[in-house]
Design brief:
heterodimer, A: mainly alpha, B: FAD/NAD(P)-binding domain, D-Amino Acid Oxidase, Chain A, domain 2, Glutaredoxin, seven-stranded mixed β-sheet, 27 strands, globular
């Protein structure tokens, strides 16, 4: 697991019904082409980024997403 | 038939060709917007200069058209800004479109109570004509048209240049040389100095046309409009009913094809409809670069404006950045020439204006990346932002069709005295541009009109007081009463600001302390 240098990003579960949320995200992409998925995800990320509002959290999330790709 | 008549300015045979030569304090190379502005700002401080230009007329084409508030305030000191405002188009509103629908409107200066508007659109040739007119009236300025710099020998304590004229060559000795000779700077080339930066490949077409019908004053920007569905279009109005239409063409466009009048007319016909009539003023197909010199000062040679740094046109940062450069430079160079400040004061010009250039390049690169995304995911986020903007106000703030030029914060300048007192709310801190405000009992005057040519001690009080024992170099401006100025400066009785000649705040205090002012002034002039 990646280090948590600033600790702004929550790394433990924060969802009351994790399976429901996970499946809601996946289902929202159903029937979309790859290109449509990219357009959809861009909208979703922007909406959530604005809602989160905390730049430290966002930067740490960006780094974490990228780091875990390099590990895979 | 063009709306502007180019006047040819007279060439006079230089005295040097007849054996009369004298060493000059300041030689300025280039009579664009920056060179004459610098010459006027020096003359205002009693410093003589010679301006060399290879041409004998003003800018060919409208080029830099958005004249920002801070530039207008600079030109106002020479009495030419009101003429620019009268001739130009004042605009504060803009509207952004996606496909055929307006997404939102914006207002650049929602706050009233400033002498000058956020922007005035005026073609560069008018700005230069007004500046040339003032320069030619000024005894301390010698405008030398058709004088082309061909060689330069820089030294630790001066510069020798060789100049070509219709009557032959001559040499000129100068203590200082300022290169205001544009992006293809002859001075920079002759000195073989690098100009590192980034090259952009997207092509744009500028069509300046005179439309023979009434037009809105606002700036309009379209993403994917029906009349140019693959790219963006920017529309800006200028003086004389001239419109700037800027089409993004993409990286593969053929500039020669695009420049053909029939092809431009076809695009314009799609945009303005079959009834519209227009005349062509100026056409340009361009790509751009963002570049910055490593140092703006090389011993006695100083670079300013496009010669020192260049940005993409989105954001009106080229011309206005150049004016901010020479505004910053003029008072420092004047003090050095008059021997009231050490030559090392120029180091702060390099630090402050390189920081500003970096900020301008960053902003302009971000705008460019938004307008012309460089990879598929970048385009996906751009398009997502545009489609969210109508219903989600937050997304409007992310749309970047050019973050328009405002004075750069000069954080960390060695000339600033950091705040000692705490609890400042609003109000410009050290390193920030001062803010204009109405002054006088009836709000009949402006704060910027009360500034002296050198430093100004701006102090707030309940009743008019004469401050004694201030340093000689500073003018005192005492603001009485509870007006907008007091709010904008977060002022209470006693609050005092030290304002530089280029209208940046050097220091501020909660009470008027003459000794603290003297110390801050020493520091701000490199004498600390």
């Amino acid at each position: 697991m990646a280090e948590t240098p600033t600790g702004a990003l929550r790394r433990t579960l924060n969802l009351a019904r994790p399976d429901d949320v996970y499946n809601a995200i996946v289902d929202a992409h159903r029937d979309l082409s790859d290109e449509q998925c990219r357009a959809f995800d861009a909208r979703l990320i922007l909406l959530l980024a604005n809602h989160v509002g905390d730049e430290d959290v966002l930067r740490e999330a960006l780094a974490a997403a990228r780091e875990t790709m390099e590990e895979a | 038939m063009a709306s502007f008549t180019y006047r040819h300015y007279p060439y006079h045979r230089p005295a040097e060709l007849d054996g009369r030569s004298e060493r000059r304090a300041v030689v300025i190379v280039g009579a664009g917007m920056a060179g004459p502005t610098l010459a006027l700002a020096l003359a205002q401080r009693g410093v003589r200069s010679v301006v060399l230009d290879e041409d004998d007329t003003v800018s060919l084409g409208s080029r830099s058209i958005c004249q920002a508030k801070h530039s207008l305030e600079t030109w106002d000191r020479f009495g030419v800004a009101s003429r620019m405002v009268e001739k130009g188009i004042t605009w504060e509103q803009g509207e952004l479109y996606l496909h055929d629908k307006p997404v939102f409107r914006f207002n650049l200066q929602p706050e009233p109570g400033h002498k000058f508007p956020a922007f005035v659109n005026l073609q560069q040739y008018y700005v230069e004509e007004y500046l040339y007119g003032r320069c030619l009236d000024e005894n301390l300025i010698e405008m030398r048209f058709r004088n082309k710099l061909v060689a330069i020998t820089p030294d630790k304590d001066g510069v020798v240049v060789e100049v070509e004229t219709p009557d032959g060559r001559y040499t000129l000795d100068a203590d200082w040389l300022v290169a205001c000779d544009g992006v293809r700077s002859t001075v920079r080339h002759l000195m073989d100095l690098p100009y590192p930066g980034e090259v952009f490949h997207d092509r744009f077409l500028i069509a300046d046309i005179r439309l023979l019908s009434e037009l809105p004053k606002e700036r309009r920007f379209w993403f994917y409009p029906p009349f140019h569905p693959t790219n963006s279009v920017l529309l800006h109005r200028q003086a004389d009913n001239v419109l700037r239409v800027d089409f993004q063409l993409g990286p593969d466009a053929d500039p020669e094809e695009e420049k053909k009048p029939e092809n431009i007319d076809r695009r314009l016909r799609q945009m303005f409809g079959p009834e519209a009539r227009w005349e062509h003023e100026w056409t340009s197909v361009y790509t751009f670069t963002c570049r910055m010199m490593d140092r703006f000062v090389h011993d006695r040679v100083i670079f300013a404006g496009d010669a020192a740094h260049v940005v993409s046109p989105f954001g009106a940062r080229g011309g206005n950045g150049a004016i901010a450069d020479v505004d910053n430079l003029a008072w420092k160079l004047a003090m050095i020439v008059r021997k009231t400040a050490p030559a090392s004061l120029l180091e702060s010009y390099c630090i402050e204006r390189r920081a500003a250039a970096r900020e301008n390049i960053l902003n302009s690169t971000r705008s460019t990346d938004f307008i012309t995304p460089k990879f598929p995911a970048s385009r996906a986020f751009r398009d997502a932002t545009l489609s969210l903007a109508r219903d989600f106000p937050f997304a409007r703030a992310l749309i970047n069709s050019g973050r328009l030029s405002v004075p750069t914060a000069q954080a960390g300048s060695p000339l600033d005295t950091p705040d000692d007192d705490t609890g400042w709310g609003r109000g410009p801190g050290p390193g920030r541009a001062m803010l204009d405000a109405p002054t006088g009992k009836e709000g009949e005057g402006w704060l910027i009109d009360g500034l002296g040519p050198e430093f100004t001690v701006l102090t707030f009080a309940d009743e008019q007081a004469r401050v004694v024992d201030l340093p000689r170099e500073a003018t005192c401006l005492c603001i009485v009463g509870d007006g907008l100025a007091r709010q904008r400066y977060d002022a209470r009785p006693g609050t005092t600001y030290l304002i530089r000649p280029d209208r940046y705040v050097a220091a501020r205090w909660r009470r008027l302390d003459v000794a603290a002012i003297a110390t801050a002034l020493q520091r701000a002039t490199g004498n600390g």
